[in-house]
Amino acid sequence: MPGPNCLILALLLLLGAAHTHAQGGCPTGCPAGQFQDPSCACYPCTTCPPGDLELSPCTATNDTACSPPTMQLLAAATPPGGVLHLTQDEFLGSFACGVALSGVSLTIVGRPGGGTTLNCAPDMGLRHFDLSGGATLTLVNLTLSGGTPTGPGGSVRAIEGSRLEATGVTFRGSTSGGPGGAVSLVMSEAVLTDCVFDGSVSSSGEGDAVSASGIAANLTVRGGIVDESAASGSSVVLEDGAVGTFLNVKFESRNVASTVTAGTYINNTGGGAVVIDTCLFLGELRFPGPAEKQRAYLGAPGGTPAVLRGAVVFADLWTPSGGLFAGSLVIEPTAVVTVAGGNGGTDAALTVPEGSFFNVSGRLEVQGAGGGAGGCLSVKAGGTLNVLPGGSVSASACTVDAGGQGAGLYVGGAFNVQRNAHLQVSQSSTFFGTGGGVLVAPGGSLSFSDPPYAGSFDFSGNTAAGQPSQLHISTGGTVDFGPGNALAANLAGDVFVEGGCGGDPIFTPSEIYGVVSAGSCPWRCMAGYALNQAPNTTKACLSLGGPAAPLFRNSTQAQAELFCAPGCMGSLVGDGTCHVECLSAQCAWDLLDCRGGDGFDWAAARSRVADSTVPGTVQGAPVPPAAARRDVLELIIRGDDNLDKTIDEHESAAAFKLSPEQHAAAAGGGGHLATA
């Protein structure tokens, strides 16, 4: 049996073993502010350098864990909905990229004064930010560059109803393996304010700056600059119903050399709504080449039209074909859209393609050049351009290549100028081609008719090689000048009709209100209108007072008309001389010229309108029935006793013994018969 001394020694050994186990093999701990390493030595806890992050604090057995700041760590350390204020000038490589947010919101603000650059190292295969699950990311005063993911969105990818808000952010030099060289939106939203897109590339050619896809995708760009595409793709692409709004944005060439193919600025392939408000689309001053393609907008035929507002300018753009703006378009009443120095290649500077339309309520002013069909404007077969009331279209200083047609305007589809709207084509020329001003192609229709009104036009100063140059009407093309309209005197010998006038190639009477053509080609008027054949007057189709004509004009309205009734020019109304042909409600009953007075032959006037002696025509135009009615003329001459220019029921009864029913019939159903 062991002695007491042995037992005491064994107990001490056991107690020592227990203490060593408790201290991790070291006999004692370390003072505060130190940690003990595996060799049982004590060291001071590390203090992280300024700007570094403390990943974990110092403990009894572990030193403080520090790390240089990375965007991933900083984002993770910011509470959801919080704001991360960066103090660094730049983050490089993997420290700058790879931030993923899902279902949370985060705001990141760059360094005051100069901003912060997040520069992913080349070939890292990373983008800056990934948003999913309805996340919201707000970026302020940053530069995002160098992203190189294999998928979409070189800098930012937003999916699943997420939202990106960026203010004062520059997206530079990122390359994506799919849509969106800088930003990709799939069923998500982005509001980009005063941002710059510079030199990013989509390897798939789908939006070097931004790609938006899906019916819930919504892109808003306010201010800032968008670089042109460096390939044959587009700067911004909208797909599958995505919508876009561009306000005060400058689209320009920043990095593309003049010898490199450039793409479309906005490519709306999905037919979603697009609004372009007060934007500037700039190309380069250069000679056109076969590789160049710099279109402002390309929309899907038949898709939702782009809406242009404010001042929108397309300057020095080039495209091999299809026009600088292709797709359907609405120019709102306050808009002023200018195309300057554009070249449409084999087409006009602006082209309405088959299945598309332009509706112009504001001002559209075009100067440009083109190839075979149209220099400034071209409406393709199956396309339509409507100049709506208050709108105007001007094509000036336009040219078309040798053998081309319609330097100012080429009409292969339908071009309609409605009431109070105007078309001007001037100072345009073809080189060895046809139609220096306007060419109406086979099947094309140019119309100024908006019954009972007409739009207006001015063709002047246009030239074509060796033939009439203002208006060229091809066989099978039609022109409708509308009620009361006529070509100006300077166009009398400057209109060319292919095939002459044999067989009436331009119109049939049921299709038109007024037609003029070269040489002895006839005017023809539809039912309810008659050709004014008065000597020394402009030929025009004048209303016979049918349902399309107003029942009554006051003197101001009548005087404003070229012809207020067949044979009565508006300038004759109230000129001091009684014109029987002006005695109609449409001409304000010639104002007071036929009231009588010294030297007025009452008997002759009464005889002139007697039923048995009324001439069938006056200066070649039929006399309106109202002017042939004795009772109406007598009402005008002596029925208005109080000279208030109206005849009421009592005056009718006193002067002519008309019954109330007869007075109502003469007054057109009203209580008073207006005389002027």
UniProtKB/TrEMBL annotation:
SMART domains: TNFR. Residues 1-22 form the signal peptide. Disulfide bonds join 45-58, 48-66. Residues 29-66 form the TNFR-Cys domain. InterPro entries: Notch_dom, Pectin_lyase_fold/virulence, TNFR/NGFR_Cys_rich_reg. Keywords: Disulfide bond, Glycoprotein, Repeat, Signal. The keyword Disulfide bond applies. TNFR-Cys repeats lie at residues 29-66. It comes from the Eukaryota. This is TNFR-Cys domain-containing protein. It comes from Hemiselmis tepida. The lineage of its organism: Eukaryota, Cryptophyceae, Cryptomonadales, Hemiselmidaceae, Hemiselmis.
